[in-house]
Specification:
The chain is mostly beta strands. The chain has 3 helices and 11 strands. It is globular and about 55 Å long. Bound molecules: flavin-adenine dinucleotide (FAD).
């Protein structure tokens, strides 16, 4: 666990704007997260959970606790021969997850290649590109309910996904749920989505691997 007072936020966002946070805590497990939240010195403080800071702009310093997940576990939790379900923890860099799928010949995430950010935020933002949104892959989201300290799970339907939108962005729920892991369904056989704009032309060409790009 990392706990830093008067934290320099400029390295925590892609804009690198100068700003500071009163505290920053990075946790490696749900137990550590729970103990940070239970700590009396943080109990009354404003809180903000960040990922890679690629959809965040700090225009001034944050007088509160910034949380970040360093949980990076990944495992296959189901495989019915046609599809697999991969459980990925919130601190994994999103593109590392996509790369893992590509390397494992698992299909479905490739259109979302190179989107900046981490797994946790992917399920908040419903990231999307080239005709695919991550809601098409999400089966289940695990989260810590900061009101009860209990773990909760949401099905994709329960996440109420819309365009770059989800239940987790509802003003009355903002900050309540800290996403700890996301379950994604990937396919063993190619299911390319090539209906979007210039991707239509790819029907005519040989697919490149990343090393050939
Ligand atoms: C150059 C560039 C290109 C981009 N291209 C695309 C694109 O093609 N498609 C697209 O959809 N987006 C795109 N984005 C936006 C960005 O990649 C996404 O919004 C991404 O999901 C942000 O991830 P992050 O980890 O950086 O989250 P952050 O910016 O750190 O946080 C985003 C939101 O998620 C919340 N959050 C983060 N982690 C958690 C957690 N574990 N639990 C609960 N809440 C959490 C934060 O509080 C915040 O509200 C782009 C951004 C940049 C800078």
């Amino acid at each position: 666990m990392l706990l830093i007072q008067d934290f320099d936020l400029s390295s925590a966002t892609t804009f690198h704007l100068p700003a500071r946070a009163r505290w920053m805590a990075e946790y490696d497990s749900v137990d550590q997260l729970r103990s940070i939240l239970a700590d009396s010195q943080f109990a009354t403080m404003k809180r903000l959970h960040i990922g890679a800071g690629s959809n965040l702009l700090f225009t001034k310093s944050f007088d509160g606790l910034v949380l970040h997940s360093a949980m990076k576990g990944m495992s296959t939790v189901a495989d019915d021969g046609e599809s697999v379900i991969i459980r990925a923890e919130s601190g994994i860099v999103w593109d590392d997850f996509v790369q893992h799928c590509v390397d494992s010949n698992l299909y479905g995430a490739e259109n979302l290649s190179y989107i900046p950010g981490e797994v946790g935020a992917s399920a908040v933002q419903n990231i999307g590109a080239y005709g695919v949104e991550v809601k098409d892959l999400i089966v289940k989201v695990e989260a810590l309910d900061t009101f009860t300290s209990g773990m909760v799970t949401f099905t994709a339907d329960e996440c109420r996904y819309g365009y770059r939108d989800s239940l987790f962005k509802r003003p009355d729920l903002a900050g309540r749920y800290i996403i700890t892991a996301v379950h994604y369904r990937l396919w063993h056989t190619p299911r390319y989505t090539l209906d979007y704009g210039p991707l239509k032309e790819l029907r005519e060409v040989t697919y490149l691997t990343r090393s050939e790009e």
